[in-house]
Amino acid sequence: MPLIILILFTGILLTVRLRGLQIRHLGKALHYVFHNEDDGEGEVTSFGALCTALSATIGTGNIVGCATAIVAGGPGALFWMWLAAFFGMATKYAEGMLAVKYRVIAEDGHALGGPFYYIEKGMGKNFKWLAKLFCVFGTMVGLFGIGTFTQVNGITSAVNNFFDPSNVHTISLFGMNYSISVVVAGIIVTICAGLVIIGGIKRISKVSEVIVPFMAVTYIGVCLIIVFTHLPQVPAAFAEIVQSAFGLKAVAGGAIGAMTVAMQKGIARGIFSNEAGLGSAPIAAAAAQTNEPVRQGLVSMTGTFIDTIVICTLTGLSIVITGAWQVEGLQGVQVTTYAFQNGLPFPAQVSSFVLMLCLVFFAFTTILGWDYYSERCLEYLTNGHQKKIIVYRWLYILAVFIGPYMTVSAVWTIADIFNGLMALPNMIALFALSGVVVAETKAFFKKHNAGK
């Protein structure tokens, strides 16, 4: 809770100091997403950098996490997710802008940047210990938590639930019985992830540029089918979301309690779904081919908009419209599966397959995105020692391979702890450098408005 409050307060502070930049310049930001700079320094296009960031951000949280928040906090949790995303856009803008401003470009065009560099170069060398602390946590989150075990376990579970839910076809491994679908899916994911990861940022970016837009558009399209085939229920769904957010439908005396639960679940899920403030996305932003930090900050900001305002909203609407959140005994992905099966005008098996496919690809791109983040953290810690980075890549691929056979409850706890610890150094830097963010933004738009 203290971390949630800190991240939300930072977003509010930046929103006020930037005078609602996320509203005033959202159109310009979306325009920049598809119009790259031709002469900018960096390794990948601005669109490629955004897709790399989205590859790690858009994942099971948008499908499973959103459902979990609504079941626990009611439809009102979605309203508080919107609020977290609104202020999170200002935070994400600041992160992306600072990442480009303080990044380092090597002679070979290799770009390195993120919280570790804007802490060291923006706050001063006396704070290099804080930058290293961020990198230690970032490396461990990638290798032991969000990047590997939890994602591949999610993929193999989704495949197993669709192809062999009763575990009829099993094989004995490591003294335990596992469904053949889990083993086969795990091997395929490991091979595919290895082929991409060994190629580095450019290959990760290229794959992300194809998979992320395709799967995002597919998922959005499927959710829109549910919305448009249930148009008469949409106004009532929005009304229920707002009423639930403020506890207006709770029994007398329980309004404040209902509102508190909805707020806590919604804001928490909103923050950790779009990763605003955690310091991960600016690592990808630093690789963008651009000479304008503010421009890339605006592009980065759209990631939060796409992740929460668009994708989580459509997931939430589908769940509320179909009443999936009220079905007894359903949890996590089962809630979204119920919404798809009962909301789409297709056979239940087809709807389940589409959802499984989205989960698999979203989780796969998260594996790729977090490898890139943790590699960049390790590169900073080891002063670019390539042999150590190559060893780390193979360890990462090994972690993906063993992920399906691990118990993920403890892993998720460790991942959440390191994720939170990773955010703290970044929060300190955003507070300290908020004046720089405001000054750079004013200078950019003054020049932009003058037609330069």
Written overview of the protein:
With 452 residues, the protein is mainly α. Helix content is 75%, strand content 3%. The chain is built from 20 helices and 4 strands. Strands 1-2 form a two-stranded antiparallel ribbon. It has a two-stranded antiparallel sheet with strand order 3-4. A hairpin with a 5-residue loop joins strand 1 (104-105) and strand 2. The longest helix has 34 residues, at 348-381.
The number of helical segments is 20
Tell me roughly what share of residues is in helical segments: over 70%
Classification by helices and strands: mainly alpha
Cα radius of gyration in angstroms: 21 Å
Give the total of beta strands.
Answer: 4
Give me some keywords for this one.
two-stranded antiparallel sheet, globular, mainly alpha, 452 residues
Itemize the secondary structure elements and their pairings.
Layout: H1 2-17, H2 21-24, H3 26-33, H4 46-57, H5 60-73, H6 76-101, E1 104-105, E2 111-112, H7 115-123, H8 128-144, H9 149-163, E3 170-173, E4 176-179, H10 180-197, H11 200-228, H12 234-245, H13 255-274, H14 281-285, H15 293-322, H16 333-343, H17 348-381, H18 386-402, H19 408-432, H20 434-449
Antiparallel strand pairs: 1-2, 3-4
